[in-house]
Specification:
Blueprint (H helix, E strand, L loop, with lengths): L3 H19 L18 H18 L31 H21 L8 E4 L2 E4 H25 L8
Antiparallel strand pairs: 1-2
Helix pairs in contact: 1-3, 1-4, 2-3, 2-4
């Protein structure tokens, strides 16, 4: 079983990886579309933020970032193909990811393993907090994996990992 300290460590590593994969990129780089379809890095970063806000709320903390401002980055939203009014810049996305990451770390530091047994709202039903955290972490790591390919589309052929 993964412990809270293991989860905090993994989230820290993944958060650092997001910053490494976005290093030296411009806003324009993040809008490059995969030829085969899918979403650009900008959408993926916004979707990661949306996912982390959901995680923070599952941990019982009101997010300082409204889900309303993240609607453009939700599952099944239309692909983002260029800058649009109301979208965050790359630096704003990274700052907001930092802010939510800090909130998650702080909250996990206050929690006990038994807190993960409590049922919390997730989707249309209640689920154990531990399962919700596990699922959201899986989802988060899945999308972080996309960043390497999207970085390469921007012409950055370095090996980050």
């Amino acid at each position: 079983m993964i412990s809270i300290s293991d989860l905090k460590r993994m989230l820290m590593i993944e958060h650092e990886l997001i910053h490494q994969q976005t290093q030296d990129l411009t806003d324009a780089d993040t809008f490059i579309q995969p030829v085969s379809g899918g979403n650009c890095m900008h959408w993926v970063l916004g979707h990661l933020l949306d996912s982390q806000v959901t995680l923070l709320e599952a941990l019982g903390v009101q997010s300082p970032i409204s889900k309303t401002v993240l609607e453009r980055y939700t599952r099944e939203s239309e692909p983002i193909k260029a800058a649009e009014p109301g979208l965050f810049t790359l630096s704003e996305l990274l700052e907001k990811l930092d802010q939510i990451h800090d909130g998650i770390k702080a909250r996990l530091g206050q929690m006990k393993e038994e807190d993960f047994e409590e049922n919390v709202p997730f989707g249309a039903r209640l689920s154990p907090r531990g399962w919700v955290v596990f699922f959201l972490h899986f989802h988060y790591s899945y999308h972080i994996g996309q960043l390497e390919y999207l970085r390469q589309l921007a012409g950055k052929l370095d090996k980050v990992v």
